[in-house]
Protein backbone atom coordinates (compact mmCIF):
# COMPACT_ATOMS: atom_id res chain seq x y z
CA UNK A 1 0.00 0.00 0.00
CA UNK A 2 1.55 3.28 -1.08
CA UNK A 3 1.70 6.18 1.43
CA UNK A 4 -0.84 8.95 1.05
CA UNK A 5 0.28 12.41 -0.16
CA UNK A 6 -0.18 13.81 3.34
CA UNK A 7 2.01 11.04 4.79
CA UNK A 8 4.69 11.79 2.18
CA UNK A 9 4.55 15.48 3.03
CA UNK A 10 4.94 14.67 6.72
CA UNK A 11 7.88 12.38 6.00
CA UNK A 12 9.63 15.01 3.89
CA UNK A 13 9.03 17.80 6.37
CA UNK A 14 10.73 18.65 9.67
CA UNK A 15 11.39 15.51 11.77
CA UNK A 16 9.37 15.25 15.00
CA UNK A 17 12.12 14.01 17.32
CA UNK A 18 13.99 16.70 19.23
CA UNK A 19 17.32 14.95 18.56
CA UNK A 20 16.80 15.05 14.78
CA UNK A 21 15.51 18.62 14.78
CA UNK A 22 18.37 19.96 16.88
CA UNK A 23 20.95 18.07 14.82
CA UNK A 24 19.47 19.33 11.55
CA UNK A 25 19.34 22.91 12.77
CA UNK A 26 22.89 22.80 14.14
CA UNK A 27 24.31 21.30 10.93
CA UNK A 28 22.42 23.89 8.88
CA UNK A 29 23.81 26.68 11.02
CA UNK A 30 27.34 25.26 10.78
CA UNK A 31 27.06 24.94 6.98
CA UNK A 32 25.69 28.46 6.71
CA UNK A 33 28.51 29.84 8.83
CA UNK A 34 31.09 27.96 6.72
CA UNK A 35 29.64 29.36 3.49
CA UNK A 36 29.43 32.84 4.94
CA UNK A 37 33.02 32.76 6.18
CA UNK A 38 34.21 31.42 2.82
CA UNK A 39 32.39 34.21 1.02
CA UNK A 40 33.73 36.84 3.41
CA UNK A 41 37.23 35.51 2.78
CA UNK A 42 36.92 35.32 -1.00
CA UNK A 43 35.51 38.83 -1.44
CA UNK A 44 38.55 40.70 -0.05
CA UNK A 45 40.87 38.13 -1.65
CA UNK A 46 39.45 38.93 -5.10
CA UNK A 47 39.92 42.64 -4.51
CA UNK A 48 43.44 42.06 -3.25
CA UNK A 49 44.37 40.05 -6.37
CA UNK A 50 42.89 42.76 -8.61
CA UNK A 51 44.89 45.41 -6.81
CA UNK A 52 48.10 43.36 -7.09
CA UNK A 53 47.52 42.86 -10.84
CA UNK A 54 47.00 46.59 -11.39
CA UNK A 55 50.09 47.44 -9.34
CA UNK A 56 52.12 44.95 -11.41
CA UNK A 57 50.83 46.46 -14.65
CA UNK A 58 51.69 49.94 -13.38
CA UNK A 59 55.20 48.82 -12.40
CA UNK A 60 55.82 47.36 -15.89
CA UNK A 61 54.51 50.56 -17.48
CA UNK A 62 56.85 52.67 -15.31
CA UNK A 63 59.83 50.46 -16.25
CA UNK A 64 58.95 50.70 -19.96
CA UNK A 65 58.54 54.49 -19.81
CA UNK A 66 62.02 54.86 -18.29
CA UNK A 67 63.63 52.93 -21.19
CA UNK A 68 65.47 55.64 -23.27
CA UNK A 69 65.11 53.63 -26.49
CA UNK A 70 61.31 53.90 -26.26
CA UNK A 71 61.33 57.71 -26.01
CA UNK A 72 64.06 58.06 -28.64
CA UNK A 73 62.27 55.75 -31.09
CA UNK A 74 58.96 57.59 -30.59
CA UNK A 75 60.68 60.89 -31.57
CA UNK A 76 62.81 59.66 -34.49
CA UNK A 77 60.94 56.79 -36.21
CA UNK A 78 57.47 56.24 -37.65
CA UNK A 79 54.98 53.76 -36.05
CA UNK A 80 55.78 50.50 -37.85
CA UNK A 81 55.78 46.84 -36.87
CA UNK A 82 59.54 46.63 -37.36
CA UNK A 83 60.31 49.95 -35.66
CA UNK A 84 62.52 50.19 -32.55
CA UNK A 85 59.54 51.09 -30.34
CA UNK A 86 57.67 47.91 -31.28
CA UNK A 87 60.77 45.76 -30.92
CA UNK A 88 61.68 47.08 -27.46
CA UNK A 89 58.08 46.97 -26.21
CA UNK A 90 57.67 43.34 -27.31
CA UNK A 91 60.91 42.39 -25.61
CA UNK A 92 59.72 43.83 -22.32
CA UNK A 93 56.27 42.21 -22.73
CA UNK A 94 57.72 38.75 -23.23
CA UNK A 95 60.07 39.22 -20.32
CA UNK A 96 57.29 40.29 -17.93
CA UNK A 97 54.54 38.03 -19.31
CA UNK A 98 52.24 41.01 -19.72
CA UNK A 99 49.27 40.69 -22.03
CA UNK A 100 50.21 43.80 -23.95
CA UNK A 101 52.43 46.90 -23.85
CA UNK A 102 51.15 49.81 -25.93
CA UNK A 103 53.24 52.93 -26.53
CA UNK A 104 51.28 55.86 -27.93
CA UNK A 105 52.00 59.45 -28.79
CA UNK A 106 50.11 62.53 -27.74
CA UNK A 107 47.63 61.99 -30.61
CA UNK A 108 46.54 58.58 -29.19
CA UNK A 109 48.28 56.72 -32.05
CA UNK A 110 49.74 53.29 -31.18
CA UNK A 111 53.49 52.77 -31.79
CA UNK A 112 53.48 49.22 -30.35
CA UNK A 113 50.95 46.43 -29.89
CA UNK A 114 51.03 42.59 -29.70
CA UNK A 115 48.81 42.59 -32.80
CA UNK A 116 50.92 44.37 -35.38
CA UNK A 117 47.86 45.37 -37.43
CA UNK A 118 46.85 47.71 -34.61
CA UNK A 119 50.08 49.76 -34.90
CA UNK A 120 49.41 53.23 -36.29
CA UNK A 121 45.77 53.20 -35.18
CA UNK A 122 43.97 55.15 -32.48
CA UNK A 123 43.71 53.38 -29.07
CA UNK A 124 40.32 51.99 -28.04
CA UNK A 125 40.29 53.45 -24.51
CA UNK A 126 40.98 57.05 -23.54
CA UNK A 127 44.59 57.76 -22.38
CA UNK A 128 43.69 61.28 -21.25
CA UNK A 129 44.73 60.64 -17.65
CA UNK A 130 48.21 59.45 -18.59
CA UNK A 131 48.61 62.22 -21.22
CA UNK A 132 47.75 64.69 -18.47
CA UNK A 133 50.78 63.48 -16.47
CA UNK A 134 48.92 61.11 -14.10
CA UNK A 135 49.39 57.45 -13.25
CA UNK A 136 46.26 55.36 -13.88
CA UNK A 137 45.29 51.89 -12.54
CA UNK A 138 42.05 50.22 -13.65
CA UNK A 139 40.22 47.11 -14.70
CA UNK A 140 38.85 47.67 -18.20
CA UNK A 141 37.97 45.97 -21.47
CA UNK A 142 39.89 46.71 -24.66
CA UNK A 143 40.65 45.09 -28.01
CA UNK A 144 42.29 42.13 -26.23
CA UNK A 145 39.48 41.68 -23.74
CA UNK A 146 39.19 42.43 -20.03
CA UNK A 147 42.52 43.22 -18.34
CA UNK A 148 44.14 44.91 -15.36
CA UNK A 149 45.80 48.06 -16.68
CA UNK A 150 48.48 50.49 -15.67
CA UNK A 151 49.06 53.74 -17.60
CA UNK A 152 51.91 56.24 -17.10
CA UNK A 153 53.06 59.36 -19.00
CA UNK A 154 56.12 59.10 -21.33
CA UNK A 155 58.75 61.83 -21.16
CA UNK A 156 61.81 62.58 -23.39
CA UNK A 157 65.29 63.29 -22.14
CA UNK A 158 64.33 66.91 -21.39
CA UNK A 159 61.28 65.76 -19.36
CA UNK A 160 58.81 66.86 -21.98
CA UNK A 161 55.56 64.87 -22.26
CA UNK A 162 55.66 63.06 -25.62
CA UNK A 163 53.16 60.23 -25.07
CA UNK A 164 52.07 57.45 -22.72
CA UNK A 165 52.68 53.77 -21.97
CA UNK A 166 49.77 51.39 -21.28
CA UNK A 167 50.39 47.87 -19.91
CA UNK A 168 47.71 45.19 -19.48
CA UNK A 169 47.69 42.00 -17.39
CA UNK A 170 45.23 39.35 -18.57
CA UNK A 171 42.29 39.19 -16.15
CA UNK A 172 41.97 35.46 -16.71
CA UNK A 173 45.29 34.98 -14.94
CA UNK A 174 43.96 36.85 -11.91
CA UNK A 175 40.84 34.68 -11.92
CA UNK A 176 42.99 31.55 -12.24
CA UNK A 177 44.93 32.53 -9.12
CA UNK A 178 41.67 33.08 -7.28
CA UNK A 179 40.30 29.72 -8.40
CA UNK A 180 43.51 27.98 -7.38
CA UNK A 181 43.01 29.23 -3.81
CA UNK A 182 39.42 27.99 -3.55
CA UNK A 183 40.13 24.22 -3.09
CA UNK A 184 42.34 24.84 -0.08
CA UNK A 185 39.80 27.26 1.34
CA UNK A 186 37.02 24.75 0.83
CA UNK A 187 39.11 22.10 2.59
CA UNK A 188 39.36 24.33 5.66
CA UNK A 189 35.65 25.13 5.41
CA UNK A 190 34.86 21.42 5.14
CA UNK A 191 36.96 20.70 8.23
CA UNK A 192 35.17 23.44 10.13
CA UNK A 193 31.82 22.04 8.96
CA UNK A 194 32.81 18.55 10.15
CA UNK A 195 33.80 19.87 13.57
CA UNK A 196 30.53 21.83 13.72
CA UNK A 197 28.53 18.74 12.76
CA UNK A 198 30.26 16.70 15.50
CA UNK A 199 29.56 19.41 18.07
CA UNK A 200 25.96 19.55 16.82
CA UNK A 201 25.63 15.80 17.28
CA UNK A 202 26.98 15.97 20.86
CA UNK A 203 24.63 18.84 21.72
CA UNK A 204 21.70 17.01 20.16
CA UNK A 205 22.50 13.89 22.19
CA UNK A 206 22.58 15.91 25.41
CA UNK A 207 19.28 17.58 24.55
CA UNK A 208 17.85 14.15 23.71
CA UNK A 209 18.76 12.82 27.18
CA UNK A 210 17.43 15.88 28.97
CA UNK A 211 14.14 15.95 27.03
CA UNK A 212 13.77 12.14 27.11
CA UNK A 213 13.51 12.12 23.30
CA UNK A 214 10.17 13.90 23.29
CA UNK A 215 9.04 15.91 20.30
CA UNK A 216 8.84 19.68 20.64
CA UNK A 217 5.07 19.45 20.26
CA UNK A 218 4.96 16.97 23.16
CA UNK A 219 7.09 19.27 25.33
CA UNK A 220 4.85 22.22 24.46
CA UNK A 221 1.76 20.17 25.34
CA UNK A 222 3.31 19.09 28.65
CA UNK A 223 4.12 22.69 29.54
CA UNK A 224 0.59 23.79 28.70
CA UNK A 225 -0.87 20.96 30.78
CA UNK A 226 1.49 21.79 33.66
CA UNK A 227 0.45 25.44 33.64
CA UNK A 228 -3.24 24.49 33.59
CA UNK A 229 -2.75 21.96 36.40
CA UNK A 230 -0.64 24.26 38.61
CA UNK A 231 -3.04 27.16 38.36
CA UNK A 232 -6.17 25.01 38.54
CA UNK A 233 -5.54 22.96 41.68
CA UNK A 234 -6.70 24.17 45.09
CA UNK A 235 -3.27 23.63 46.64
CA UNK A 236 -0.41 26.12 46.77
CA UNK A 237 2.76 25.10 44.93
CA UNK A 238 6.11 26.85 45.43
CA UNK A 239 9.14 25.71 43.41
CA UNK A 240 12.67 26.71 44.44
CA UNK A 241 15.91 26.37 42.48
CA UNK A 242 19.21 24.97 43.77
CA UNK A 243 20.14 28.42 45.10
CA UNK A 244 17.00 28.51 47.28
CA UNK A 245 15.33 31.19 45.12
CA UNK A 246 11.64 31.03 44.28
CA UNK A 247 11.21 30.19 40.60
CA UNK A 248 7.49 29.34 40.43
CA UNK A 249 4.32 30.28 42.27
CA UNK A 250 0.86 29.14 41.30
CA UNK A 251 -2.26 31.21 41.92
CA UNK A 252 -3.20 29.41 45.14
CA UNK A 253 0.30 29.90 46.61
CA UNK A 254 0.09 33.64 45.86
CA UNK A 255 -3.27 33.78 47.65
CA UNK A 256 -2.20 31.77 50.69
CA UNK A 257 1.14 33.56 51.14
CA UNK A 258 -0.13 37.01 50.21
CA UNK A 259 2.67 37.65 47.68
CA UNK A 260 2.81 38.28 43.94
CA UNK A 261 5.12 37.79 40.98
CA UNK A 262 7.68 40.14 42.53
CA UNK A 263 8.69 37.24 44.83
CA UNK A 264 9.93 35.14 41.89
CA UNK A 265 13.73 35.13 41.79
CA UNK A 266 14.09 36.00 45.48
CA UNK A 267 14.84 33.78 48.48
CA UNK A 268 11.95 33.14 50.92
CA UNK A 269 13.63 35.25 53.63
CA UNK A 270 13.42 38.33 51.38
CA UNK A 271 10.02 37.56 49.90
CA UNK A 272 8.19 36.48 53.09
CA UNK A 273 10.24 37.83 55.99
CA UNK A 274 11.15 35.88 59.11
CA UNK A 275 8.85 33.21 60.49
CA UNK A 276 8.08 29.53 60.53
CA UNK A 277 6.61 29.63 57.01
CA UNK A 278 9.92 30.93 55.69
CA UNK A 279 11.85 28.25 57.61
CA UNK A 280 9.65 25.49 56.18
CA UNK A 281 10.00 26.72 52.57
CA UNK A 282 13.76 27.20 52.97
CA UNK A 283 14.15 23.66 54.35
CA UNK A 284 15.41 24.71 57.78
CA UNK A 285 12.44 22.88 59.34
CA UNK A 286 11.86 19.34 58.06
CA UNK A 287 9.03 16.89 58.40
CA UNK A 288 5.65 16.06 56.89
CA UNK A 289 2.37 17.95 57.25
CA UNK A 290 4.06 20.83 59.06
CA UNK A 291 1.70 23.39 60.54
CA UNK A 292 2.59 27.02 59.94
CA UNK A 293 0.83 30.36 60.21
CA UNK A 294 0.78 33.03 57.53
CA UNK A 295 -1.24 36.07 58.58
CA UNK A 296 -4.57 34.69 59.83
CA UNK A 297 -4.26 31.49 57.83
CA UNK A 298 -3.23 28.09 59.17
CA UNK A 299 -1.27 26.21 56.50
CA UNK A 300 -0.15 22.60 56.25
CA UNK A 301 3.18 22.48 54.38
CA UNK A 302 5.21 19.68 52.81
CA UNK A 303 8.59 20.09 51.10
CA UNK A 304 10.09 17.64 48.61
CA UNK A 305 13.66 17.96 47.16
CA UNK A 306 14.12 17.67 43.38
CA UNK A 307 16.91 16.02 41.36
CA UNK A 308 18.41 19.35 40.27
CA UNK A 309 19.10 20.43 43.86
CA UNK A 310 15.94 22.53 44.22
CA UNK A 311 12.69 21.73 46.01
CA UNK A 312 8.92 21.88 45.60
CA UNK A 313 6.73 22.88 48.56
CA UNK A 314 2.98 22.36 48.73
CA UNK A 315 0.64 24.37 50.93
CA UNK A 316 -2.89 23.45 52.02
CA UNK A 317 -5.26 25.87 53.70
CA UNK A 318 -6.51 24.44 56.98
CA UNK A 319 -8.35 27.60 58.00
CA UNK A 320 -11.40 26.74 55.92
CA UNK A 321 -11.74 23.37 57.71
CA UNK A 322 -11.51 24.89 61.17
CA UNK A 323 -15.25 25.47 61.54
CA UNK A 324 -16.04 21.85 60.72
CA UNK A 325 -13.33 20.69 63.14
CA UNK A 326 -14.76 22.89 65.89
CA UNK A 327 -18.23 21.49 65.39
CA UNK A 328 -17.01 17.90 65.37
CA UNK A 329 -14.86 18.30 68.49
CA UNK A 330 -17.65 20.16 70.26
CA UNK A 331 -19.96 17.27 69.52
CA UNK A 332 -17.44 14.75 70.82
CA UNK A 333 -16.86 16.75 73.98
CA UNK A 334 -20.58 17.11 74.51
CA UNK A 335 -21.09 13.37 74.12
CA UNK A 336 -18.40 12.62 76.72
CA UNK A 337 -19.87 15.16 79.13
CA UNK A 338 -23.42 13.90 78.62
CA UNK A 339 -22.31 10.32 79.18
CA UNK A 340 -20.80 11.24 82.55
CA UNK A 341 -23.64 13.54 83.48
CA UNK A 342 -26.22 10.91 82.61
CA UNK A 343 -24.90 8.62 85.30
CA UNK A 344 -24.50 11.47 87.79
CA UNK A 345 -27.95 12.84 86.97
CA UNK A 346 -29.56 9.44 87.57
CA UNK A 347 -27.99 9.22 91.03
CA UNK A 348 -29.09 12.75 91.91
CA UNK A 349 -32.61 12.14 90.68
CA UNK A 350 -32.81 9.04 92.86
CA UNK A 351 -31.61 11.09 95.84
CA UNK A 352 -34.14 13.84 95.11
CA UNK A 353 -36.92 11.27 94.74
CA UNK A 354 -36.04 9.74 98.11
CA UNK A 355 -36.10 13.15 99.82
CA UNK A 356 -39.51 13.90 98.36
CA UNK A 357 -40.90 10.52 99.37
CA UNK A 358 -39.65 11.15 102.90
CA UNK A 359 -41.40 14.55 102.76
CA UNK A 360 -38.07 16.27 103.47
CA UNK A 361 -38.97 19.18 101.21
CA UNK A 362 -36.55 21.71 102.65
CA UNK A 363 -33.67 19.30 102.24
CA UNK A 364 -34.76 18.60 98.66
CA UNK A 365 -34.79 22.33 97.81
CA UNK A 366 -31.34 22.78 99.36
CA UNK A 367 -30.00 19.74 97.48
CA UNK A 368 -31.22 21.03 94.12
CA UNK A 369 -29.73 24.47 94.81
CA UNK A 370 -26.35 23.00 95.66
CA UNK A 371 -26.26 20.87 92.50
CA UNK A 372 -27.23 23.77 90.21
CA UNK A 373 -24.82 26.15 91.95
CA UNK A 374 -21.88 23.76 91.68
CA UNK A 375 -22.38 23.34 87.93
CA UNK A 376 -22.73 27.08 87.36
CA UNK A 377 -19.65 27.96 89.42
CA UNK A 378 -17.56 25.34 87.60
CA UNK A 379 -18.64 26.57 84.15
CA UNK A 380 -18.11 30.25 85.02
CA UNK A 381 -14.67 29.59 86.51
CA UNK A 382 -13.55 27.80 83.35
CA UNK A 383 -14.96 30.28 80.81
CA UNK A 384 -13.51 33.23 82.74
CA UNK A 385 -9.98 31.88 82.32
CA UNK A 386 -10.32 29.99 79.01
CA UNK A 387 -12.18 32.10 76.45
CA UNK A 388 -11.97 29.66 73.56
CA UNK A 389 -15.42 28.00 73.55
CA UNK A 390 -14.22 24.65 72.24
CA UNK A 391 -11.51 24.27 74.87
CA UNK A 392 -13.76 25.62 77.65
CA UNK A 393 -16.46 23.06 76.77
CA UNK A 394 -13.84 20.30 76.87
CA UNK A 395 -12.62 21.31 80.33
CA UNK A 396 -16.18 21.55 81.71
CA UNK A 397 -16.94 18.08 80.36
CA UNK A 398 -13.68 16.67 81.72
CA UNK A 399 -14.45 18.18 85.11
CA UNK A 400 -17.73 16.27 85.16
CA UNK A 401 -15.97 13.04 84.14
CA UNK A 402 -13.32 13.62 86.83
CA UNK A 403 -15.99 14.15 89.48
CA UNK A 404 -17.59 10.84 88.52
CA UNK A 405 -14.19 9.16 89.05
CA UNK A 406 -13.61 10.88 92.37
CA UNK A 407 -10.95 13.26 91.07
CA UNK A 408 -10.88 17.03 91.53
CA UNK A 409 -10.11 18.80 88.20
CA UNK A 410 -9.09 22.44 88.57
CA UNK A 411 -8.10 25.18 86.18
CA UNK A 412 -5.16 27.12 87.63
CA UNK A 413 -5.72 30.69 88.76
CA UNK A 414 -2.75 31.70 86.58
CA UNK A 415 -4.54 30.47 83.44
CA UNK A 416 -5.46 33.06 80.80
CA UNK A 417 -6.22 31.98 77.24
CA UNK A 418 -7.87 34.39 74.76
CA UNK A 419 -10.15 33.29 71.94
CA UNK A 420 -7.46 33.64 69.24
CA UNK A 421 -6.23 30.06 68.87
CA UNK A 422 -4.82 29.26 65.45
CA UNK A 423 -5.40 25.52 65.86
CA UNK A 424 -8.02 24.95 68.60
CA UNK A 425 -8.63 21.42 67.40
CA UNK A 426 -4.97 20.51 67.91
CA UNK A 427 -4.90 22.08 71.38
CA UNK A 428 -8.11 20.23 72.31
CA UNK A 429 -6.43 16.98 71.32
CA UNK A 430 -3.36 17.82 73.41
CA UNK A 431 -5.35 18.91 76.49
CA UNK A 432 -7.78 15.99 76.22
CA UNK A 433 -5.01 13.39 76.01
CA UNK A 434 -3.02 14.89 78.90
CA UNK A 435 -6.10 15.23 81.15
CA UNK A 436 -7.20 11.65 80.37
CA UNK A 437 -3.69 10.41 81.10
CA UNK A 438 -3.65 12.34 84.41
CA UNK A 439 -7.11 11.00 85.41
CA UNK A 440 -5.91 7.45 84.76
CA UNK A 441 -2.79 8.10 86.86
CA UNK A 442 -4.61 9.47 89.95
CA UNK A 443 -7.73 7.29 89.84
CA UNK A 444 -8.13 5.36 93.08
CA UNK A 445 -5.53 7.40 94.98
CA UNK A 446 -6.42 9.45 98.10
CA UNK A 447 -6.99 13.18 97.59
CA UNK A 448 -6.77 12.76 93.81
CA UNK A 449 -6.30 16.08 92.05
CA UNK A 450 -5.50 17.26 88.49
CA UNK A 451 -4.61 20.87 87.73
CA UNK A 452 -4.60 22.44 84.23
CA UNK A 453 -2.68 25.65 83.54
CA UNK A 454 -2.90 27.54 80.23
CA UNK A 455 -0.73 30.63 79.84
CA UNK A 456 0.18 32.90 76.95
CA UNK A 457 3.66 34.31 76.29
CA UNK A 458 3.39 36.57 73.27
CA UNK A 459 1.91 34.30 70.62
CA UNK A 460 3.16 31.13 72.35
CA UNK A 461 0.80 28.97 74.43
CA UNK A 462 2.30 27.09 77.39
CA UNK A 463 0.21 24.20 78.76
CA UNK A 464 0.94 22.43 82.04
CA UNK A 465 -1.05 19.51 83.45
CA UNK A 466 -0.13 18.43 87.00
CA UNK A 467 -1.46 15.47 88.95
CA UNK A 468 -1.00 13.93 92.37
CA UNK A 469 -0.31 10.46 91.04
CA UNK A 470 2.86 8.36 91.37
CA UNK A 471 4.76 10.40 88.76
CA UNK A 472 7.01 9.22 85.92
CA UNK A 473 10.46 7.72 86.72
CA UNK A 474 13.41 9.58 85.22
CA UNK A 475 14.45 6.64 83.02
CA UNK A 476 10.96 6.48 81.48
CA UNK A 477 10.37 10.16 80.74
CA UNK A 478 11.24 9.74 77.07
CA UNK A 479 9.68 6.32 76.70
CA UNK A 480 6.22 7.60 77.68
CA UNK A 481 6.15 9.61 74.42
CA UNK A 482 6.97 6.54 72.31
CA UNK A 483 4.09 5.22 70.26
CA UNK A 484 2.83 1.89 71.63
CA UNK A 485 4.54 2.21 75.03
CA UNK A 486 2.23 2.08 78.06
CA UNK A 487 2.17 0.81 81.65
CA UNK A 488 -1.48 -0.24 81.24
CA UNK A 489 -2.83 -3.41 79.67
CA UNK A 490 -4.00 -2.93 76.10
CA UNK A 491 -7.76 -3.16 75.54
CA UNK A 492 -9.26 -5.82 73.32
CA UNK A 493 -10.50 -3.32 70.71
CA UNK A 494 -7.23 -1.46 70.20
CA UNK A 495 -3.82 -0.57 71.56
CA UNK A 496 -2.50 1.83 74.16
CA UNK A 497 0.47 4.15 74.07
CA UNK A 498 -0.98 6.51 71.44
CA UNK A 499 -2.11 9.53 73.49
CA UNK A 500 1.23 10.92 74.67
CA UNK A 501 2.99 10.12 71.37
CA UNK A 502 0.23 12.03 69.59
CA UNK A 503 0.72 14.96 71.97
CA UNK A 504 4.45 15.19 71.20
CA UNK A 505 3.88 14.77 67.46
CA UNK A 506 1.31 17.57 67.38
CA UNK A 507 3.59 19.84 69.42
CA UNK A 508 6.66 19.22 67.25
CA UNK A 509 4.63 19.66 64.08
CA UNK A 510 3.93 23.22 65.22
CA UNK A 511 7.57 23.79 66.12
CA UNK A 512 7.03 23.22 69.87
CA UNK A 513 7.92 20.60 72.44
CA UNK A 514 6.39 18.21 74.99
CA UNK A 515 8.22 17.17 78.17
CA UNK A 516 7.46 15.60 81.54
CA UNK A 517 8.91 16.41 84.94
CA UNK A 518 8.08 15.99 88.60
CA UNK A 519 5.25 18.15 90.01
CA UNK A 520 5.53 20.05 93.24
CA UNK A 521 3.44 17.51 95.15
CA UNK A 522 5.37 14.53 93.85
CA UNK A 523 3.19 13.63 90.88
CA UNK A 524 3.82 14.21 87.17
CA UNK A 525 3.86 17.58 85.40
CA UNK A 526 3.52 17.55 81.62
CA UNK A 527 4.56 20.75 79.83
CA UNK A 528 3.68 21.50 76.20
CA UNK A 529 5.01 24.61 74.42
CA UNK A 530 3.24 25.67 71.18
CA UNK A 531 4.92 28.59 69.34
CA UNK A 532 2.75 30.83 67.17
CA UNK A 533 -0.38 29.14 68.50
CA UNK A 534 -2.26 32.46 68.69
CA UNK A 535 -3.41 34.54 65.75
CA UNK A 536 -3.03 38.29 65.42
CA UNK A 537 -5.33 40.19 67.84
CA UNK A 538 -8.42 41.71 66.25
CA UNK A 539 -8.70 45.49 66.53
CA UNK A 540 -12.43 45.39 66.01
CA UNK A 541 -15.05 42.67 66.60
CA UNK A 542 -15.73 40.67 63.47
CA UNK A 543 -19.11 40.77 61.68
CA UNK A 544 -21.83 39.34 63.86
CA UNK A 545 -19.44 38.73 66.76
CA UNK A 546 -20.49 39.88 70.22
CA UNK A 547 -18.16 40.73 73.15
CA UNK A 548 -17.51 37.93 75.60
CA UNK A 549 -20.14 37.84 78.37
CA UNK A 550 -18.98 38.52 81.89
CA UNK A 551 -19.57 36.07 84.70
CA UNK A 552 -22.79 36.63 86.62
CA UNK A 553 -23.83 35.32 90.02
CA UNK A 554 -27.44 34.39 90.63
TrEMBL record:
InterPro entries, from UniProt? HATPase_C_sf, HATPase_dom, His_kinase_dom, PAS-like_dom_sf, PAS_fold, sCache_3, Sensor-like_sf, Sig_transdc_His_kin-like_C
A Gene Ontology molecular function term of the record: phosphorelay sensor kinase activity
Q: Where does this chain mainly localize? A: membrane
**Do you know which Gene3D superfamilies this protein is assigned to?**
1.10.287.130, Histidine kinase-like ATPase, C-terminal domain, PAS domain
Q: This protein's superkingdom?
A: Bacteria
Name the GO cellular-component terms: plasma membrane
Cite the Histidine kinase domain residue spans from the record: 423-534
Keyword match RNA-binding: no
For biological process, the GO terms are: regulation of DNA-templated transcription
Its name, as the record gives it, is histidine kinase
Amino acid sequence: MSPTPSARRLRLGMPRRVFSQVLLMQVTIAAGVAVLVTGLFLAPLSKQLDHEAMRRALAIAETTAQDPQIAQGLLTTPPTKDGPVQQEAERIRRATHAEYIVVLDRHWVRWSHPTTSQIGRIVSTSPSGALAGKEVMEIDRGTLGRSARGKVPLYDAHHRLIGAVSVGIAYDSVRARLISVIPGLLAYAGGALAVGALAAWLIARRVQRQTRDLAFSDISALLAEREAMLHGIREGVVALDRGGRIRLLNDEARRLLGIGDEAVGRVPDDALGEGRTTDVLAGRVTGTDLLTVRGRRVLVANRMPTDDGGAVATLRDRTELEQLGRELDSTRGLIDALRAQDHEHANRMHTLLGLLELEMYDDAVEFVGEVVGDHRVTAEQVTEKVQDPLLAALLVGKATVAAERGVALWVSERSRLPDRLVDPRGLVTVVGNLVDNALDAVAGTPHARVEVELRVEGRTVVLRVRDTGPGVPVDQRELVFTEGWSTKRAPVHGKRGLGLSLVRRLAERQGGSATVDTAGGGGAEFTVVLPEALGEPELEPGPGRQPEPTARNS
